[in-house]
Amino acid sequence: MKPGTAPLARPPADAPARHPPRSRPVRQTGYRLVTLLFSALAVGGCTTLLPTSRTEVVSEWKSYDDAVVSLASITPYQATRQDVHRAGLDPYQNPAVTVLHFGNVLQKFAAATLIKPDDVDPGIRDCLRAGKHCNGYAIAVKKTDRQRTGGFWRDSLNFERETVTTGWSVEALLVFVDDQLVYELLGGQPRINEYEVHRNPLGPLQGWGDRPLQTFR
């Protein structure tokens, strides 16, 4: 220490440590971002954040009308099994096609055995007479979209869940005697539009009473 220089004052040992002041603009910016995020969620309804699902059997048909047009191109007693396969209905290539043996076909036409043969469709009659030489293809295609459409917070907290299901489905039956197509049947739903709503007045606490019981079982 130089002569004539006053000694530096030292802070007491128990004095709290000094930290540099925090940057208020940065902290305020973070608060603003959080506020804007919650405001956007509340105003927008957050429908896009709700889960969606899709059920689809892989098929060349894009609609019910496509199935009708495709099956109209194959006519019983004119089309063969090879013609059906060329139309995209080969069970080894199309997962929507199920092969039916004679027992399966017989179950579908059990009522036909109780009426006069002359009153039965010729294709069914020939199938029943052919016995094990008769078999068939069952075709089932279904495409649906499920979307939750309610409010985000009501849905997330399990107070209310709204689900809209749209799509279409088609079911067809093709019956063969050996390799000759003898019968064709088409049905299904050209348009599916279902609305489902579940309401829980207690929200996330709705099923709390059942959980302890399941624990002790």
Biggest sheet details: 5 strands, antiparallel
The N- to C-terminal Cα distance equals 82 Å
What class would the helix/strand composition place it in? alpha+beta
Question: In one word, what is the shape?
Answer: elongated
Helical residue percent band: 25-40%
Instruction: Supply Rg.
Output: 35 Å
Number of helices: 7
Order of helices and strands: HEHHEHHEHEEH
Low-confidence runs: 40-44
Average pLDDT figure: 78
By DSSP, the count of extended strands is 5
Strand content: 25-35%
Q: What is the total domain count?
A: 1
Explain what the structure shows.
The protein has seven helices and five strands. With 217 residues, the chain is α+β, with helices and mostly antiparallel strands. The termini are far apart. It has one domain (50-207). Strands 1, 2, 3, 4 and 5 form a five-stranded antiparallel beta sheet that branches.
Overview in brief:
With about 220 residues, this protein is α+β, with helices and mostly antiparallel strands. The chain has seven helices and five strands; from the N terminus they run αβααβααβαββα. The radius of gyration is 35 Å and the shape is elongated.
Provide tags for this entry.
five-stranded antiparallel sheet, alpha+beta, 217 residues, 7 helices
Write the topology of this structure:
Layout: H1 24-44, E1 52-56, H2 64-72, H3 81-86, E2 97-100, H4 102-108, H5 122-130, E3 134-148, H6 152-156, E4 160-177, E5 180-199, H7 210-216
Antiparallel strand pairs: 1-3, 2-3, 3-4, 4-5
